[in-house]
Fold:
Amino acid sequence: MTLLWHRRQFIGALLKVSAAIAVARSALSGVKASAADATRSLTPHEIETLRGISFLLFPFPELGAAPYDRIVSGVSSAAASDASLRQLILDGVQALDAGRDAGFLALDETTQIEVLEQIEATPIFQYLLQKTRDDLFNNPVVWAHIGYQGSSLEFGGYIDRGLNDIDWLNGN
Amino acid sequence: MATSFDKDDDHVVVVIGSGAGGATVSRELAMAGIDVVCIEAGAPLEKIVTDATAMFPRLTWLDRRIGSGDLPAGFPVWSGKGVGGTTLHWTAHTPRFETEHFEPSRYFGALDDCTILDWPVPLEEMSRYYSAAEHSMGVSGTHGWPKLPESNHYRVLKAGAERIGLKHCERSNMAINSVAQGGRPACLQLGFCSSACAVNAKWTAANTPIAQALKTDHFEIRDRSFVLHVEHDNKGRATSVVYVDPEGALQRQKARLVCLAANAIDTPRILLNSASSAFPNGLANKSGHVGKHYVKHVFAIVTAILPHPVHFHRGTQLLGGVNDFMYHDSSRGFAGGFKFEQVSFDPASLAVLSRPGAWGKEYAAQLQRYDHYAALLVLGEDPSQQSNSVTLHPVEKDQYGMPVPVVHYVDHDNSRRMRDFGVRTARELYESLGSEEIFLSAPPPATHNMGTCRMASNIDEGVCDPWGRSYDVANLFLSDGSQFTSSGNANPTLTIVALAMRQADYIKVQMLNRDL
Structure:
């Protein structure tokens, strides 16, 4: 396996903890103030763009907007107290909109995905991928949707709740 | 009433670390009436919750370490921090080393660029201590305790193994209570083993040996205390241990004898950081082997989406093992052996590991079938290489001013061939069950860290003798996985506990003989 692979896995595994935030931030700290003015808070357009990206990363259309709103509200509140993160987002959205009359959000979905594939290696993309993945797959609404039952301590464990109940192995 | 010892009391044994090795040697000595001060970097674990994300930062050693070679730069190994050490996080699988794994030169001897050594420990003696260790840990499947019950995920592994003609898929012995014993209840199959067990059905160094030691009048644990170095006198005997207490003050505990059990990363780190004019390359390092020959295990994770539900989150994370490949067989194209062990993940971990870096519609649709996933790990023997090592960073310091450890590891070509064979076979296993979506996933950083102060039959080849006693410093012992001569293909904790019990017996005898 490649080193890159290891690094990604490490970043992902560590996102569970605040230490990971520090890792992400140290990656972000190299971003210098550029065109976008990071002293302001995120605009509705920027928030909408983040939500659009988070949906494209792991689309679960049956769940509606709520899980994605939760991700974006986590990112916005982190950005509110972190100028380098805010700068990263502002610059990222600006770059996605640049040269497109109606901006990134007006593109059709196939084109949006192609654009995201081109920026996969960028810090903003990796940051959003980690945030989206971690928030989404720690969300009980998503758990219920994908078949994860979570903690069973309250119910006496799985020992009498389906530990050994599948019946397809013999006939398969 | 809690026992406490004076810092100038030079008759106490000082044990550094309260994981499997440190806690066991502490308990054995304290129960024999020998006074022990155990110094632990982490805190006692208070309330355990069934939430992997919440528990991770509470269990994990997050102090800075630097990875090099094939290891992730920022988080090269995954070890525990807290009273109980890495046993808070462990999944409690307790295989023994098999006979041939004490003699790796038989199959690894011809490999290039390796530093293979056989264990200098009599096998019949080890089996006696294995049995004692299993008894002390309440290992299900031994001493009349039944094995843990079958789970869906185990049955999937077994069915797949049988379909491709494998014959040795079984439920493993586990240090998880199948019935109440040792003051701990039977397992409820919560499925959060690696996030600490909320009902204490899983053996940990905290809930058993530390708890037992605390019941004697001969044991004190100083938690949240970080050891920097070990001092010695002009006769080359260890005299005291210097540590930072919870308030940040430097303390010096005098010692009659020191047992180092700070994990195979921090044990050599402390020795290297204890360099002096008498030991310019680090304490107990006249041989130059401290920090060298770092071994983990050849490791891979394969995840598969099966055509029907598995619900692999229900029940202990590990249970089933496939042992058909555990012994060397030259016809396979690699030396040494490996095992398959079933393993499960919560959704957030699965999303990170199953297809690293993946995103989009297809991956979302796969993860949506979380309840159809099965997974196994390939766990194989890692040949010792001198260049795989733990060293001190020349400049970078941690929050205590101690040099940050650099863990360097490069896979041996034999390990790549072994892993490829294992992954290929795992694919066949899942394909036989109708799976069409099988992924080589990202393995988490190693929790099995060994070999960095290895035992050898003579002073030229290792750091310590067959009892884990330093060749250079007569009253210094290595009491954790760092003393392993080789990695075997068994999860290391049972062997750490067995060696610690054996070492404690040796220390007791030598104390009676006035040698220590």
The CA atoms of residues 80 and 119 of chain A lie 24 Å apart. Chain A touches chain B through 55 residues (CB under 8 Å). The longest helix of chain A spans residues 66-80.
